[in-house]
Write a structure and sequence with these properties.
Elements (H helix, E strand, L loop, with lengths): L8 H29 L5
């Protein structure tokens, strides 16, 4: 596999995907912690 140029849109998309995945993981961890503490949506 070749390295992408710095201005390549695919490189930016790949970077955004990793950021979104980290955010989703953190969000799930927060929701899980809230459930453990007894919080709910209502």
């Amino acid at each position: 596999m070749t390295d992408l140029r710095d201005d390549d849109p695919m490189k930016e998309a790949t970077s955004l995907r990793s950021v979104i995945n980290l955010y989703a993981t953190r969000f799930q961890n927060v929701v899980s912690a809230q459930r453990n503490l007894g919080f709910n949506e209502n």
